[in-house]
């Protein structure tokens, strides 16, 4: 079955995309290569163009790749130039077309469904030309193309011949019965017969699955002749072929089992068996079913999927020992999706096919293990599934091929024996002689397999042996109880109805839903315990099937309960009867497909809703109110779904408007006795049964019970774990319209931190819902301290996009700078670069303040920071590292961020007090401050010329020139006076640098020398260098 291409608006010449899709990187690169080729050959003759291309290719490997990919893209997008482009490509390539082959494989594996129709046709044409030209590696490309249904024929490779036969034998089955495909099917039949008769030993490498495929087409007249020769005259096909047993004893390579799955299907299946946790597979299976298994033509695909899972998907021991979705669970789900008898029989044959001629020396335990585990795990929740598989296993022995009955029996015996030897199951007797199986089947099993029916011990799952990759039961039994669904699976055999009592909801598959035949309600154990009046009403409910009659009788029962002489000891018995009688009301969807006032009112006209309505009409101080609550509490124990049905009634019914608080009274009346626990359990049940109803209830639940819903992320996780993109958008609209509040400032940070352990889509949904609220980003900015670049890419990407819209505050900059420096983590550098472009002055002031604060504050004062600051743990070294990374990032641009006065002043301040190690480590960064200092200095008055170094600038009490000594001594008194005044008037903290004054002017003299003692003093005071000031104005003796 060939998948349909993606539909969308063509934006590029190569791929089909929608207006919402980002530009594809591969397409952009190929278009750049087309531009290079076009610029080289534009306006030239063919010979001149070839010379230009050859000259460009000779420049290097990059130019060679650009020309080859440009010609390849032109060939796909311009059919009129295809011949010329292919000729030029063969002339200029220097690597045997390797660049082109690699790119074709990439397109086939990743982009084939998105290719435009013209490009897809051209790609097939190109592959044919490569085959005709004998290009090495073309067979590999052709095998990949056959995954999308190969159309061309080649006989160059034995493996390719076998792959072609395998592919077309399966396609013949899919094309059977369609008049429009009759001619095509005949070509496929002729093609396969020709290859099988002429190249049989090349086809022999397919192995035993060749027989399975030929069985499916053996009724076609031409194939029937081949089938007879295969069974009775094997030598006519090949002298080396001894008979069908030789073929059936050969194991099929995984290459063939994988070739009938498209790359997209294969990727999804591998993801499910390696990444999806057991119990969280529902949405993935629903998507897979909608995408690939929803049409009638897809029925034959089940056997291909099962063969692929058994023969190709062999998980590692690490996966087997985890809680990843096991293979048997996927196969069980696939079996339940079969809606035709033929598809179900073929699926069962595909599951047991490796059992029939199993040889422990050649075959793998992993090929036979899924079948035994499907039967074992289905026995308790779904005995009909186990029964039909065991029945198939018994009947296949004499019916597969009577002439080889002994061999088939031995193969199945070998399989069962090897299963016990490898301890997949410790004993088979509890499986073969289980009382849930009917007597005839158990008798047949004892007759066929007496060796495995003797042990009375129950099956015990043991730990996996390290030497053999076995798929053990890594999950507790309560996860098995509901692993498929409450809906009965349908196979070719007639099954008896399953008893669904006691099943848990946590882990289920959801097959294509079929009509459910309800068993008659059995209230015999309870009805005799009721008094005569109640018994009569309950039996009337059992007898009648009309909903209106049920409602009338239910109202009469409520009236009896509210009577003063009602015996409360009958409450539990009555609840058991009602739960059994109304179990059908709790199946299926509650919410109408089209939500209108009429449809909502109609949906709450059920007998159970009579209890809800009577509660809404009563006052809480009424004695009957508590009696009905006790009745509901008893019903809740028998039927847990009553909880979210009550929530739905309180929201949907006009009679219950404004009565949502009634649910709190109900929760307190239950055995749980706690609103939060009861609410979470009911919403969990709703999540598992009806996602639409969950989304419908969400606004009311959040608005009516804010303390229970907003304080943790439990309910939010339930919602984002199951919603799709449409439902997410609807919730965001509710938020923006003011109907829904899912976050509040005091708890949003904790919820977002909790979400870091959720699945990727769940995290993105959570961030989308958060951004729909009007919560300041500063509220959650401390989450940056919890984010690691390899473990939390979802949160980091959402934060990055939001931060770029914000004007930076000091707290934001502080949190961004507090992230550890790592060469692979580009978060801090990217947002700093953006802010430096858009808000350079604001960012410069914030960085200056943080640099000076972290450089000057003593350690004991750092403990007095706020709680968010404690989280940050920002250090001076971190700031300098991020500043240096930003400097390198901006080095090749014309941006002048590092020429700002605040930045350079702060760097001067840090440089003056940091140790030599930091000066050397960040010398390039500090050199910016040196350049600023030199450029702002004035010409010296001193006649002495001496080089100025950083050590001289930082030296205290350097000697003045002799000519100025007397002036310095004479003015010391006035300077001291002005010092005190300046110290008292300066508003700057002693540890900080006053930005209102220019930096120190350091001319070429031997020490600090300002234009006047007063100017020098003011600068020194504002730098906080009091000790230096005192030293500078001490009287000195003449030399």
From TrEMBL:
GO CC list: cytoplasm; nucleus
Domain of life: Eukaryota
Keywords from the named record: Cytoplasm, Nucleus
Region named Disordered: 932-974, 999-1019
InterPro entries: HEAT_Ints3_C, INTS3, INTS3_N
Record has Nuclease as a keyword: no
Domain Integrator complex subunit 3 N-terminal: 62-149, 157-447
Signal peptide: none
Membership in a protein family: Belongs to the Integrator subunit 3 family.
Protein name in UniProt: Integrator complex subunit 3
UniProt organism field: Paramormyrops kingsleyae
């Amino acid at each position: 079955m060939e998948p349909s291409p993606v539909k969308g608006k063509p934006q590029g010449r190569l791929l089909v995309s929608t207006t919402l899709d980002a530009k594809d990187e591969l397409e952009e690169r190929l278009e750049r290569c087309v531009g290079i080729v076009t610029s080289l050959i534009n306006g030239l003759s063919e010979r001149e163009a070839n010379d230009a291309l050859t000259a460009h290719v000779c420049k290097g490997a990059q130019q060679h790749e650009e020309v080859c990919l440009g010609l390849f893209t032109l060939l796909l997008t311009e059919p009129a130039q295809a011949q010329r482009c292919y000729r030029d490509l063969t002339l200029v390539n220097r690597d045997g077309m390797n660049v082109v082959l690699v790119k074709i494989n990439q397109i086939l594996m990743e982009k084939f469904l998105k290719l435009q129709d013209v490009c897809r046709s051209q790609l097939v044409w190109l592959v044919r030309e490569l085959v005709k030209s004998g290009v090495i590696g073309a067979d590999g490309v052709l095998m990949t193309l056959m995954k999308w249904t190969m159309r061309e024929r080649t006989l160059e490779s034995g493996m390719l011949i076998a792959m072609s036969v395998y592919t077309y034998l399966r396609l013949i089955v899919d094309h059977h019965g369609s008049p429009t495909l009759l001619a095509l099917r005949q070509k496929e039949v002729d093609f396969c017969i020709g290859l099988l008769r002429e190249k049989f030993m090349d086809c022999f490498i397919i192995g035993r699955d060749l027989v399975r495929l030929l069985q499916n087409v053996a009724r076609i007249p031409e194939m029937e002749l081949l089938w007879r020769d295969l069974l009775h005259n094997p030598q006519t096909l090949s002298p080396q072929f001894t008979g069908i047993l030789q073929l059936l004893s050969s194991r099929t390579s995984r290459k063939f089992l994988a070739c009938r799955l498209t790359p997209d299907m294969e990727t999804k299946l591998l993801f499910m068996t390696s990444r999806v946790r057991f119990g969280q597979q529902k949405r993935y299976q629903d998507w897979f079913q909608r995408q690939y298994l929803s049409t009638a033509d897809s029925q034959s695909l089940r056997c291909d999927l099962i063969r692929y899972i058994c023969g190709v998907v062999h998980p590692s021991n690490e996966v087997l020992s985890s809680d990843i979705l096991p293979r048997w669970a996927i196969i069980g789900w696939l079996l339940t999706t079969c809606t035709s008898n033929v598809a179900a029989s073929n699926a069962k044959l595909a599951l047991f096919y490796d059992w029939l001629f199993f040889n422990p020396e050649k075959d793998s335990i992993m090929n036979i293990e899924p079948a035994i585990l499907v039967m074992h795990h289905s026995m308790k929740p779904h005995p009909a599934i186990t029964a039909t598989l065991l029945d198939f296993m018994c009947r296949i022995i004499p019916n597969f091929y009577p002439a080889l009955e002994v061999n088939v029996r031995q193969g199945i015996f070998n399989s069962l024996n090897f299963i016990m030897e490898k301890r997949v199951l410790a004993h088979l007797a509890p499986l073969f002689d289980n009382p849930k199986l009917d007597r005839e089947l158990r008798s047949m099993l004892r007759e066929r397999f007496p060796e495995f029916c003797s042990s009375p011990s129950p099956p015990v799952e043991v730990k996996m042996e390290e030497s053999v990759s076995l798929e053990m039961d890594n999950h507790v039994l309560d996860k098995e109880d509901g692993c498929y669904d409450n809906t009965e699976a349908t196979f070719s055999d007639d099954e008896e109805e399953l008893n669904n009592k006691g099943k848990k909801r946590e882990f289920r598959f959801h097959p294509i839903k079929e009509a459910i035949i309800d068993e008659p309600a059995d209230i015999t154990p309870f009805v005799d315990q009721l008094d005569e009046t109640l018994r009569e009403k309950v039996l009337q409910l059992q007898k009648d099937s009309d909903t209106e009659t049920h409602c009338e009788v239910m109202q009469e029962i409520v009236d009896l309960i509210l009577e003063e002489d009602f015996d409360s000891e009958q409450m539990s018995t009555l609840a058991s009867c009602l739960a059994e009688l109304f179990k059908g009301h709790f199946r299926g969807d509650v919410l109408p497909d089209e939500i209108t006032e009429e449809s909502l009112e109609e949906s709450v006209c059920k007998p159970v809703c009579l209890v809800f309505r009577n509660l809404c009409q009563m006052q809480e101080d009424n004695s009957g109110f508590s009696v009905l609550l006790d009745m509901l509490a008893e019903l809740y124990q028998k039927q847990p779904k009553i909880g979210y049905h009550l929530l739905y009634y309180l929201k949907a019914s006009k009679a219950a408007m404004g009565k949502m608080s009634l649910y709190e009274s109900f929760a307190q009346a239950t055995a749980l006795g706690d609103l939060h626990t009861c609410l979470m359990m009911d919403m969990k049940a709703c999540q598992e049964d009806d996602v639409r109803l969950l989304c419908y209830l969400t606004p009311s639940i959040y608005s009516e019970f804010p303390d229970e819903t907003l304080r943790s992320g439990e309910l939010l996780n339930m919602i984002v774990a199951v919603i799709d993109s449409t439902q997410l958008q609807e919730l965001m609209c509710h938020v923006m319209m003011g109907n829904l509040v899912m976050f509040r400032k005091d708890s949003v940070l904790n919820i977002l931190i909790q979400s870091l352990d959720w699945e990727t889509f769940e995290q993105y949904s959570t961030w989308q819902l958060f951004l729909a609220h009007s919560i300041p980003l500063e509220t959650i900015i401390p989450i940056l301290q919890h984010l690691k670049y390899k473990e939390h890419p979802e949160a980091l990407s959402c934060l990055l996009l939001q931060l770029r819209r914000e004007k930076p505050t000091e707290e934001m900059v502080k949190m961004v700078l507090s992230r550890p420096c790592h060469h692979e983590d580009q978060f801090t550098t990217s947002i700093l670069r953006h802010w430096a472009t858009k808000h350079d002055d604001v960012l410069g002031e914030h960085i200056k303040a943080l640099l000076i604060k972290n450089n000057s504050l003593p350690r004991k004062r750092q403990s007095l920071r706020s709680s968010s600051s404690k989280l940050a743990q920002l250090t001076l070294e971190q700031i300098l590292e991020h500043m240096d990374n930003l400097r390198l990032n901006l080095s090749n641009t014309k941006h002048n961020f590092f020429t700002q006065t605040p930045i350079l002043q702060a760097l001067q301040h840090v440089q003056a007090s940091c140790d030599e190690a930091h000066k050397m480590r960040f010398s390039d960064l500090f050199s910016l401050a040196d350049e600023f200092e030199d450029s702002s200095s004035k010409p010296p008055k001193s006649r002495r010329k001496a080089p100025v170094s950083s050590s001289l600038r930082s030296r205290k009490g350097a000697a003045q020139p002799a000519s100025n000594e007397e002036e310095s001594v004479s003015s010391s008194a006035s300077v001291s006076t002005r010092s005190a005044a300046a110290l008292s008037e300066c508003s700057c903290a002693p540890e900080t640098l006053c930005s209102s004054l220019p930096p120190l002017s350091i001319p070429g003299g031997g020490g600090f020398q300002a234009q006047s003692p007063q100017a020098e003093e003011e600068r020194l005071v504002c730098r906080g260098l009091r000790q230096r000031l005192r030293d500078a104005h001490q009287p000195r003796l003449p030399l």
